[in-house]
Every structure is written in C-alpha cells, then in structure tokens.
Design brief:
Elements: H1 39-48, E1 54-56, E2 71-73, E3 84-88, H2 94-107, H3 112-115, E4 119-124, H4 146-158, E5 163-168, H5 176-182, H6 187-193, E6 198-202, E7 213-216, E8 226-229, H7 232-235, E9 238-244, E10 246-248, E11 252-254, H8 256-259, H9 266-269, H10 283-287, H11 309-323, E12 328-333, E13 336-338, E14 349-351, E15 355-359, H12 362-372, H13 391-397, E16 410-412, H14 415-418, H15 437-443
Parallel strand pairs: 3-16, 4-5, 4-9, 5-6, 9-12
Antiparallel strand pairs: 1-2, 3-15, 7-8, 10-11, 12-15, 13-14
Length: 447
C-alpha cells in the first residue's frame, strides 16, 4: 500500500472541501465520573420491577420525566460475548494502519474463515455532508478515514474475499465515486489494495437492485418489527461495520452499532419519503414520529408509540442492529471529535485517542469503546453519557451481545492503558438540546 498524498501532520487530504478554522486543543485528559445513578442503583430498581424474567425499562430521573416502559424478555445475562482487541495507532500512515489493523484482527480470530470466497459488505460511517471541521477534513473528525478502508480491503483480499462492497446512504445525487474522491479517497489505491474486487453503492435507495429486501427484527422489535433496506444488506455474506469513535447527541455514543442506523434508505425513511431521489434526513419519521413510514413499509408496533427522540433513536438503533448484526466491527479512533457525532452539534471539539478497536461482536466492541471513552457502557437509561435510553443495554437485553465489561475479554492494550476521556458529566448536553433539529435538518435538505 502506497503512502497517501497528504501531510498527516498538517491534516490536509488529497482534495480539500470548505474553509478551515483554527485548530482546537485536544482532549485535556481529565478523569470521567458517572452521573447520579450508578449501576447498583439501576439493578436495584430493575429488580423491583422484575417478574419471571421480564423487566420494565425505566429511568431518566436525572433528566426529568420518565420513559415509556418496555416489556420484553431480558436476555442480557445470556447475551453472547466475544473478545475485543485494542491497538495503539498513532497516525493514518497506511503502513501503520495496515500493521495495527492486521494485528487486531488476528487477535480476535483472523479473517480467512470469515471472508474466504464470500461477498463482504462494508458499511462505512460517512454521516452527513463532507465538510472540514476546525481545519481538518471529515475523515479526521467525524467520518471513517479512507486509509482504514484500504487496509481492510487489502486484508480481506489476502484472506480470499470474492468481492468487497463499500456501502453508505449518502445525501448526494452525484455518483458515489465522485463523493468519495471529494472526501479524499484515492479510489485507484483502494482498488489496488482490494485486488480490484471493490465496488461501491449509495444505499439511500434501491441502487442497482429492482426492489428492497425486508429484514425482520428477531424479537419483534422495540419500535419496528422489520425494515426495508437496499438488497446488499441481505445479499452480502459478511457484514462489516467500519465506524468512528464518537459521542452522539441523542444516542450518547456512536460506534459499530449506531453506524448501522445508516443502512436505512432515505427513500423510505427520509423526511420526504417515499422518494427514490431523497436527500432528506430520517428525522421526522425515526427521531420525532411526526410522519409515518410510507404505505407498504413495516410500521411501528406496540400500544404506546413514544415521540421523544431520546427514546426513539436508541430503540430504533437496537432494532436496526438486530436485523443484520455486523460479523466484524472495526472502530477508527485515531483522530475524532468529542461532544457529538458531527460538526452540526453544538460544543463539538477535536480529540486524538490514537486507537483502533476490533471484534466480532459489535455490542461487545462498543461496550469496550464506551469504557475507553471514560463512560460506563451499562449506565442506566437517562444517565450520563446516555441522555436517553442506553441502546447498548437494549441490544444486550435483546440478546445481541453483552455490554458487561466483566464478561468481555480485552486483548492488546487494556482499557486503562487505552483510556481517553471524552467528556465528564458537566459537559453533558441538556435534554431538549441533544439534537439541534432546526439547524440540523436543513444541512441535509439540499435540492
């Protein structure tokens, strides 16, 4: 793999988008502390409402009000566990990323048995428009870095993958390759790294397929029983979630699990759905319940339909992850942002964790990521860092994977060695300001 054509120290990609701003200071290394509820308090409260293995999910005292109770069988104690590897990665130098990613993947079982002879679908995190932030490109702040994609494609090719498909629901009408190039991706280098087996598709609609695939939620869904998605998410033999290590204004944190929220096509779930040419965000339907899904698309279930995005987004996230959990989760934590998932969040700043994390269970990976960020992955609903429900807890209770650190084997760096505190409770975004919807929506509503 060749060296990329950019100056890592200066942070300029092959092609620059937008005007830079002065670079902010990096994280201050301050220690984290939890919100007013600790895990033992949550367990005590949950136990009081437990009967025959069924638990009411309550909370949000620390933020005021209460969530709509959920009644589902709690499978958290039986949720699967898988090892998570943590590696130090100082920069986006291609050789370093390749070396550390290879070592991390080997530490959790390797690739050959997973991808040999198979079509590998890689869901990359490229949420929102391509824009610089504080003098750095999107790939060094809130998007996955293309060097990670190149390194993974090289490893997948060497492990015998038959085909590699890069997917994301992008808010653009231009061909996907044009958007990737504008974002600083070197597609020629990517193809070479992947043995010329790499293709890509914008999954904001049907794309190259003639119809959608309907994938069902195994437990019936916290909010939705099924979703209609681009067929690559069904036809792919292997799904890889290639995510960024970030905070999230509504979900608290966003890594491998929340990354899969982006598989839903804006054509069916966007604010102007149904529209195969939609460039609108999925806010009105999924976040706010102000619109219904189009006729024929699986609608919400349950006697009580919540309208609070702090309830809805975590539940939808767990439901989406349930329809096709990632077979491999890779998290880019070399350079990132804290305080939100993108430049549109108020109070976002730069941070340099200089890490990468890998595992075969996305919930386990995200639990370790959350701990590395200085947070408790089992924090009760409505407790820091989760302004609303804890989607990792919902995923665990659905049996998708454990978020209990005592049950997860960490390989490579320890959590303590990798610790890079993102925020402390006083920095938590107050309820009602977790997503700046009036400013947020127009960013995605281009004609």
């Amino acid at each position: 793999m060749q060296c990329p054509l950019h100056d890592l120290a200066g942070g300029k990609p092959d092609r620059w988008i937008g005007k830079g701003q002065p670079e902010a200071e990096h994280h201050d290394g301050s220690s984290s502390r939890w919100g007013r509820f600790r895990r033992r308090d949550f367990l005590r409260l949950a136990a009081a409402g437990t009967a025959g293995g069924w638990t009411g999910l309550l909370g949000r005292d620390s933020f005021g009000g209460s969530f709509t109770p959920l009644r589902r069988q709690n499978l958290a104690d039986r949720a699967p566990s898988a090892p998570v590897a943590i590696r130090r990665c100082q920069s986006y130098d291609p050789q370093e990323v390749y070396r550390e990613l290879s070592a991390a993947i080997d530490a959790v079982g390797g690739l050959r048995d997973l991808v040999a002879g198979k079509t590998v679908v890689v869901k990359v995190n490229m949420t929102g428009p391509v824009r610089d932030f504080r003098g750095r490109p999107a790939s060094e702040t809130y998007h996955i870095h293309p060097t990670f994609v190149e390194a993974f494609c090289a490893l997948a090719d060497q492990a015998g993958a038959r085909r590699i498909v890069i997917v994301e629901a992008l808010y653009y009408r231009e061909p996907m390759e044009e958007i990737l190039q504008k974002a600083g991706w070197n597609l020629q280098r990517l193809q070479s790294a992947g043995g010329h087996k790499v293709i890509w598709e914008n999954t904001k609609n049907m794309g190259s397929w003639k119809k959608y695939s309907r994938l069902t939620v195994p437990w019936g869904g916290y909010l939705y029983p099924a979703f209609d998605v681009n067929q690559w998410y069904e036809k792919g033999d292997v799904i890889v979630s290639l995510a960024k290590l970030k905070d999230h204004g509504t979900a608290g944190v966003t890594m491998a699990v929340k990354n899969m929220f982006g598989i839903l096509p804006t054509a069916l779930y966007g604010d102007d759905a149904p529209n195969e040419d939609s460039l609108r965000a999925r806010v009105a339907i999924l976040h706010l319940a102000k619109r219904k899904v189009p006729d024929g698309v699986p609608a919400e279930v349950g006697p009580e339909i919540p309208t609070d995005p702090l309830e809805r987004v975590p539940r939808v996230t767990a439901d989406i992850y349930g329809i096709r959990p990632a077979d491999l989760a890779i998290v880019d934590g070399v350079l990132s942002i804290k305080g939100g998932e993108g430049f549109w969040n108020q109070g976002v700043d730069l941070i340099e964790p200089k890490l990468l994390l890998v595992g075969r269970n996305g919930v386990c990976v995200d639990a370790v990521c959350t701990a590395v960020m200085g947070y408790d992955p089992m924090a009760p609903h409505g407790s820091f860092p989760f302004p609303g429900e804890n989607h990792l807890q919902l995923a665990a209770e659905a049996g998708l994977g454990t978020n209990d650190l005592k049950r997860i084997e960490v390989r490579g760096l320890s959590i303590q060695e990798a610790l890079c505190p993102f925020r402390t409770p006083p920095e938590a975004v107050p309820v009602g300001a977790c997503d700046n919807y009036p400013a947020f929506v127009p960013q995605y509503a281009w004609a």
